[in-house]
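Supplementary material to the annual report.
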Amino acid sequence: MKTSLGFGKLLLLVSLFSLTGCGTYNRLVTLEQTVNKKWADVQSVYQRRADLIPNLVSTVAGAANFEKSTLTEVTNARASVGQVKLDPSKAPTDAAELEKFQQAQGQLSNALSRLLVVSENYPQLRATEAFQNLQAQLEGTENRISVERNNFNTAVQEYNTALERFPTNMLNKMFGFKARPFFTAAAGAEKAPEVKFDFSKPATPTTTP
Amino acid sequence: MLGASLGFLRRQFLGPILFCIVLAAEAASAAEVIPPKPPAYFNDYANVVSKEKALALNEKLAQFERETSNQVLVAVFRKMQSDSDVADYTRRIAESWKVGQAEKRNGTVLFVFLDDRKMFIQVGYGLEGALPDVTAFDITERHIKPRFRTGDYTGGLEEGVDLILKALRGEYKGGGETAQEKSRSTASSGCGPLGFLVMLIIVLTIIRLGRRKGGYGYTGLGGPFISSGWGSGWSSGSSSSSSSGGGFSGFSGGGGSFGGGGAGSSW
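Predicted assembly:
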């Protein structure tokens, strides 16, 4: 019984292979590796940002009576980012896992942009070369993050599409290829949020008669 | 059976088709214009630098590629044709121009948008070590910006170029040729008459297309051509110098890519 099942599977495999060519399998492997490579790139740019934060915090803390709550917020967000550790060499297969990671990073993004907004109130701090340089580095890192996230999503899309396509979609189950989740462009997480202090205008309704 | 297979087909194809439509709609709504690949290293579409200085800067940048293989470009435009952030927009432009050699990814482009009073240095992946964001920021903020503020565009660009080259020198070694010169010499020696034939067909096609569209005027055999939408002035200068032979070095992208490195300032 067991052997006949194995034989049946083998027969199916062979016939599928002859149908698609083993090029499909190799293509999937390549695509999956590209996804993993892009994931590593994403991780390294996020790490780069995390590495900048101690320096930023100490520079800002040096400014006379800088608002403490914003600083603590950044430090806390930085710490919680450190807790959501994902394997840097392998892209996550679980959407919830990626979501958690993205949320932690998004929180740090928000805390950082709030810090930059608050720093507007400290012209002396902003005039220092150290702060300006840090800001340039931080902006560069945010740019890199958005680039690498996009590259990752493109790679995932190509891989997932290849998986779903007939007849590859019959093969991938057998070899254990799994679709990968995307980064989602959640409101406020992708772009640094713009902070506006305008309370005079009522919210405009989305539906107008 | 037929219904099932139709449903299957729909599931397989409707998604991608919808995705394409959404993408197309997005591209249309953004109304962004990525300028075409520039003909030269130094491209002043806004006409603020004199022809002699522009040619001198162009030659300096071409020589820099021969020595180091780094491709450094300058592009001065009047206005940004995008609603995006300047960092985001210029990265996409640099990427589409393929500045830098493919394996070393060593391209750098200084973008200036005069009417927007914004500039940005885009740094390719391979040069992020030699020209980190802090250095790029230092160049735009503390060296170019003060000169631009007084209206000294030529001086600001000259100083900016000098500082960029200074930072990048020593990172890579060049082969004594620009990407364009290399592709020319291999095309003539490697492929012989066939290569020539292919080139001839391409050139003829471009000329014909240029006539039909009227948008991109082809200004002479082998010379650079330029979009009329991005200002005039440079096209006459560059084409005359290239047809006179020698003196002008044209730019061809080597296939470099950009990852968001660099920095910019507004003045």
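The helical segments of chain A are 2-20, 23-61, 68-83, 95-119, 123-127, 129-164, 168-175.
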